[in-house]
């Protein structure tokens, strides 16, 4: 494993202001969401908005380096979207982590690119493809076949779109928590009600599931030996035990781990 490693995820809302500008809508703000959703369904048959209209409300990450593990979140509780992006992008100015995501090459990174451009931000450390640092011609964060950014959804599908899986399904199949509760997408509710801890816990849960799948991927590829894999899993459990907001994640993980022959050993029975 090449350190440091940054596993990340973003959460978004529809940018109704930009959407109104794009479509020339003169409507009360309360009506814009439904109008934009209707227009999008007419265009594409889905409510899922164009990537530039995804306004970022949270970016979470799990950082691993030679000093240990650290979870973080930048959210709209304290920061504007531009400030969230500035904080996240500054990570790449200081270090050049191996970036891990689920669907990051098709969603998270393009959204970050568009929204950074919208706010007039500069991020050469993340988006340079060799124009500044010639070494990045051969290993950059955009090329799907490079290892600087590993999009697990992409690589596990062997780069065939028909094999893509949802993070929730992949996590469950491997014995990890996946989405807890009913699995509904509640980000708009969390933001509207200013339930910031619920928002960051949701985003961090996706990060944790992605991280655990990444460890299994490294084991498959022989980039981690079994003992090292077990050590990192146990280190993750120990780290989360010190984070009260992830008590539910640990509890669900303990239950789901019993469903596969391999993950049943993640939580060994207590000794008497």
Folded structure, characterized:
By secondary structure, the protein is an alpha/beta fold. The chain has one domain (5-13, 61-265): Nucleotidyltransferase, domain 5, CATH 3.30.420. It contains 11 helices and 5 strands. It has helices at 16-23, 29-44, 81-94, 104-118, 124-127, 152-156, 167-173, 187-192, 196-221, 226-240, 247-256; strands at 5-14, 54-65, 68-75, 98-101, 149-151. Strand 2 and strand 3 (68-75) form a beta hairpin. The mean pLDDT is 94.
Query: If helices are DSSP runs of H or I spanning 4 or more residues, what is the number of helices?
Result: 11
Distance between the termini: 36 Å
- Compute the average pLDDT: 94
Strand order of the largest sheet: 3-2-1-4-5
| Radius of gyration (Å) | 19 Å
What is the chain-wise order of helices and strands? EHHEEHEHHEHHHHHH
Strand content: 5-15%
The CATH class: Alpha Beta
User: Mind telling me which CATH architecture this is?
Assistant: 2-Layer Sandwich
Topology at a glance:
Elements: E1 5-14, H1 16-23, H2 29-44, E2 54-65, E3 68-75, H3 81-94, E4 98-101, H4 104-118, H5 124-127, E5 149-151, H6 152-156, H7 167-173, H8 187-192, H9 196-221, H10 226-240, H11 247-256
What attributes characterize this protein structure?
alpha/beta, 5-stranded mixed sheet, 11 helices, 5 strands, RNaseH-like_sf, nucleic acid binding
What's this entry about, in short?
With 272 residues, the protein is α/β, with parallel strands linked by helices. The chain has helices at residues 16-23, 29-44, 81-94, 104-118, 124-127, 152-156, 167-173, 187-192, 196-221, 226-240, 247-256, and strands at residues 5-14, 54-65, 68-75, 98-101, 149-151.
């Amino acid at each position: 494993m090449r350190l440091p490693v940054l596993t990340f995820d973003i959460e978004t809302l529809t940018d109704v202001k930009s959407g109104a500008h794009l479509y020339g809508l003169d409507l009360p703000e309360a009506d814009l969401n439904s109008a934009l959703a209707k227009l999008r369904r007419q265009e594409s048959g889905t409510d899922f908005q164009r990537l530039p209209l995804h306004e970022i409300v949270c970016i979470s990450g799990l950082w691993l380096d030679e000093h240990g593990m650290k979870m973080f979140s930048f959210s709209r509780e304290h920061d504007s979207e531009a400030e969230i992006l500035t904080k996240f992008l500054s990570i790449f100015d200081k270090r050049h982590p191996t970036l891990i995501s689920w669907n990051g090459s098709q969603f998270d990174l393009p959204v970050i690119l568009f929204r950074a451009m919208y706010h007039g931000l500069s991020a050469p450390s993340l988006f340079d493809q060799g124009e500044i640092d010639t070494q990045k011609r051969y290993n950059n964060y955009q090329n799907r076949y490079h290892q600087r950014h590993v999009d697990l959804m992409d690589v596990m599908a062997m780069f065939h779109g028909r094999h893509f899986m949802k993070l929730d399904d992949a996590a469950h199949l491997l014995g990890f928590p996946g989405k807890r509760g009913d699995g509904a997408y509640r980000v708009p509710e969390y933001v509207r009600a200013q339930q910031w801890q619920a928002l960051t816990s949701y985003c961090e849960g996706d990060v944790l599931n992605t991280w655990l799948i990444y460890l299994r991927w490294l084991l498959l590829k022989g980039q981690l030996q079994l003992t090292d894999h077990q050590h990192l899993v146990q280190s993750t459990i120990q780290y989360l035990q010190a984070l009260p907001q992830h008590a539910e994640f640990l509890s669900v993980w303990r239950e789901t781990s019993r469903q596969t022959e391999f993950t049943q050993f993640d939580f060994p029975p207590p000794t008497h």
